[in-house]
Design goal:
The chain has two domains: 75 residues; 45 residues, no CATH class. 24% of the residues lie in helices and 33% in strands. Strands 1, 2, 3 and 4 form a four-stranded antiparallel beta sheet that branches. Strands 5-6-7 form a three-stranded antiparallel beta sheet, with no helix packed on it.
Length: 151
């Protein structure tokens, strides 16, 4: 393992925060680091928009910025070298191992959707599906509940 300097982009957000009901605010700045300028500028835009919507925060746009910088960082020869150093560290995840794309409940919902007929084609029979929504009823004449899983 060697040490090297890597380029990062530092987002500095300067804001003045007032407690509820107060007219005097307290100035503060915080920094976040990003690998790319685009990510930094996107985050800055999102922070400013979010803070502008708050009744008790004023963002100083002249002091808030994305600036290129460099940070000293450990550099590894290979992924095996990273794994050797971090294998006993909690929270480490091998970047080549894909994360599961969805939870088991989402998969069950998808499987059930595939098996159900479209409500337009079912002739009033339930359960049926309307897009990604499952329409069900306990017995004919009961009110229909609509369930939808938000992704």
């Amino acid at each position: 393992m060697d040490t090297a300097w890597i380029q990062v982009f530092v987002l500095t957000l300067a804001e003045c925060v007032a407690p509820a009901g107060k007219t005097v605010c307290q100035e503060r700045e915080f920094d976040l680091q990003f690998v790319t300028r685009a990510d930094c500028e996107y985050a800055l835009e999102q922070f400013v928009t979010l803070k502008d919507e708050s009744a008790n925060v004023i963002v100083d746009r002249n002091k808030s910025r994305c600036a290129p910088s460099a940070r000293q960082s450990d550099v590894f020869e290979s992924l095996d070298a990273v794994n050797a150093v971090t294998e006993d560290k909690q929270g480490w995840r091998d970047p080549s191992v894909a994360r599961p794309s969805s939870s088991p409940s989402i998969e069950l919902h998808r499987e059930r959707l595939e098996k159900l007929p479209d409500c337009e084609d079912s002739g009033g029979q339930v359960p049926c599906k309307k897009g990604g929504i499952i329409v069900e009823t306990a017995k004919p004449g009961d009110s229909v509940e609509v369930w939808r899983r938000d992704r």
